[in-house]
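User: Some background: our group keeps a shared notebook of sequences we're curious about, and every so often someone picks one and asks for a predicted structure to add to the entry. Today it's my turn. The entry only has the sequence so far, pasted here. Could you supply the structure so I can complete it?
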Amino acid sequence: MDFKIRKNRAVAQGPRRLVRERSEYFRLMDQGYGNKEASRLVGIHERTGREWRNGRTDPARFRPPARPERAACPETRGRHLSQDERIHIADRLREKATIRAIAVDLGRSPSTISREIRRNSTVDPRGRQHYRPHAAHARADARRPRPKPGKIGQNPELRDFIQRHLAKKWSPEQICQALRDTFPERPEMHVAHETVYQALYVQGRGELRRELAGALRSGRARRVPHRQAAARRPRFAHPMVMISERPAEVEDRAVPGHWEGDLIIGKDGASAIGTLVERATRYVMLLHLPNGRTAERVHDALVDTVRTLPGHLVRSLSWDQGAEMAAHGSFTVATGIPVYFCDPASPWQRGSNENTNGLLRQYFPKGTDLAVHAPDHLVAVAAELNGRPRKTLGWETPAERLHKLLAA
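Assistant: Of course. Here's the predicted structure to add to the notebook entry:
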């Protein structure tokens, strides 16, 4: 069956599942054809063939057909090639089989077969490579034992150089760079700084004197493991409610009263202004924080601000996981307003607020002291923003849209 497809026919039919073409492509690949040749014979682009071969096809659009059964092959024994597999590789190489065809026979990755042939082949006096399975198996077994002797422990000159500079309180990274500068033509004197750390920290190696670990800037004689995700402390004492649990009515902006909040930070992080944006109207309110942005001060400013609004216009508040919202539990108790927290590093989940913060930088540039602005000035800036017509509101202003809601 001819699987070549003309361009005009493909355009007329639009996107197709290419079930038959895919099956034929894998049949050709199993016969040892390369991606370029198999794609040409089937009539698809090479990139499509690579995506099929590497399994990067969208599962929602197409469920790949079952691959044909491969021929009987030697039994495998886990992640390492067995001697029977190496004998099979040698037999197939004598038959001029391709790497990919051998990989299909053995159920291995083509890169595994290629690496095996490259690393364990024997070179004759004429410089020709020969793959001899028993010699290859012996070579692989000799390479496998652990632990292997470290590079530092095998080279006294390298060890002395590192110990001498550790005693001068050089960091491992500085020492490794100095080795490359001092011995540019001697790769046996080059190590990565992690190798130095391993020689200091790993028990039983004895490559470097144990007391030299105290010369490290950390002062530790061993590494301190990082906490696992399950052992991390909660962000706040009161459990957070994540934004994924926010009511569905918030997403379409049809119901007013759902606000997004954040802080804009001044010079050296010493001052801040709180920002609140209503999602449906884009109405802006600013929080005056002259004495800092601690959780207590942000809590008080939020409570004072939301109490100036009608109850039906304050239904929820979305915020990031900044430390200034540590008192979110008491804020909810005082106002009855639930707080929903965005996921880490996800500013788009508060898109209206992020956009408004960018507009506010016209009035409060980065790197300036924000504590100098009086409450009256913040009110004037918010009024000016709320008086700007917005394309997303059909060229109405946020103030006009909010007035309509209050009138209704």
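Suggested note for the entry: Strands lie at 122-123, 129-130, 241-242, 258-265, 272-278, 284-289, 316-319, 339-341. The CA atoms of residues 70 and 105 lie 6 Å apart.
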